[in-house]
Design goal:
Elements (H helix, E strand, L loop, with lengths): L1 E7 L4 H11 L5 E8 L5 H7 L4 E4 L8 H14 L4 E4 L8 H4 L6 E5 L14 H10 L3 E8 L9 E8 L6 H25 L3 E4 L2 E4 L3
Parallel strand pairs: 1-2, 1-4, 2-3, 4-5
Antiparallel strand pairs: 5-6, 6-7, 8-9
Helix pairs in contact: 1-6, 5-6
The structure holds glycinamide ribonucleotide.
């Protein structure tokens, strides 16, 4: 059973989807710590309701970005975490964090990478950009986290239709329901089964 740490900044519906999958016995792991970059994030309440340790670590409380990254890394190292899930985490962490957990961090992005990703593309902004461009299909991507934002090896993707009368909020909800909450727990489960193999920047899913 793997020990999972989560990084959150907001509502935590993806965290919830993972916790629910664990409860259903679909993931051979448990979430042992959740860190929020923001006070009052509802994700913290979701975790606390399950008796999971929570902490708030705000970047502005640290002198430099490096200090923040080091403190976060230390927090998870001290707790013997096998996998870190970014679950609606809105900060980009640097090498002082990323190098400590190479190939052990995964993220959910609310679009089909390499479209609508990178700096500035997060949360609702992604869906606003999708609607502005007029693409007819969007979706979600789970990928390993590397030092470059949204550029790590892709684990799973799922497409979602864009409708003519979509608002950013309606599209965000559909992408969550039809893609994110399905593929994120699945990717965590594959990781827990040690079935993800990265070769030349490409993920292969090993047969059982
Ligand atoms: C989700 O749509 C997630 O994919 C996105 O923010 C939302 C968070 O929702 N993440 C990013 O944009 C990360 N760059 P949640 O807090 O309810 O899981």
């Amino acid at each position: 059973m793997i020990r999972i740490g989560a990084l959150v900044s907001g509502g935590g519906t993806n965290l919830q989807a993972i916790m629910d999958a664990i409860d259903r016995g679909e993931i051979d792991g448990k979430i042992t710590a959740v860190v929020s970059s923001k006070d009052g994030a509802y994700a913290l309440e979701r975790a606390a309701a399950r008796g999971i340790e929570t902490a708030v670590m705000r970047k502005k409380d640290y002198k430099t970005s490096q200090d923040y990254d080091k403190a976060l890394a230390l927090f998870f190292k001290e707790r013997d975490i096998d996998l870190i899930v970014y679950a609606g985490f809105m900060l980009i962490l640097g090498p002082d964090f990323v190098n400590c957990f190479e190939n052990r961090m995964i993220n959910i992005h609310p679009a089909l990478i390499p479209s609508f990703c990178g700096k500035g593309y997060y949360g609702l902004h992604v869906h606003e950009a999708v609607l502005k461009k007029g693409v007819k299909v969007t979706g979600a991507t789970v990928h390993f986290v590397t030092a470059e934002c949204d550029a790590g090896p892709i684990i799973l993707q799922k497409a979602v239709e864009v409708k003519d009368d979509d608002t950013p909020e309606a599209l965000q909800r559909r992408v969550m329901e039809q893609a994110e909450w399905i593929i994120y727990p699945k990717a965590v489960s594959l990781f827990a089964q040690n079935r993800l193999e990265i070769k030349d920047g490409v993920v292969k899913i090993k047969e059982k």
